[in-house]
Amino acid sequence: EVQLVESGGGLVQPGGSLRLSCVASGFVFSGYAMSWYRQPPGKKRELVAGIRRADGGIEYGDAVKGRFIIDSDDAHNTVYLEMNLLRPDATAKYYCHAWNYGQLNYWGQGTQVTVAS
Question: In the predicted model, what is the mean pLDDT of the chain?
Fold first, then answer.
């Protein structure tokens, strides 16, 4: 059974930091592009950050460049998202996503991040 289990969300003040984790199981982790998406209230889901497997490249959404860092620990089938200098517009449900560059892709259930004073 494929599972992506996110954790680490919560309430944080503006300017603060959080680290999200996504533990994967049920598929060959190293063969999948791993990404974080978020969906703010009333808005569409958007890419936050992703790691490509072909060349190890990383991409970030424009809104988070320079403040968020994505990292992967293949030994533990885990992908992380370190979020710094958080702003209220980062309030969203954050989802882990895995894609095998073909027809298979999986989503986690999400973890809520709320940035408020």
Answer: 96
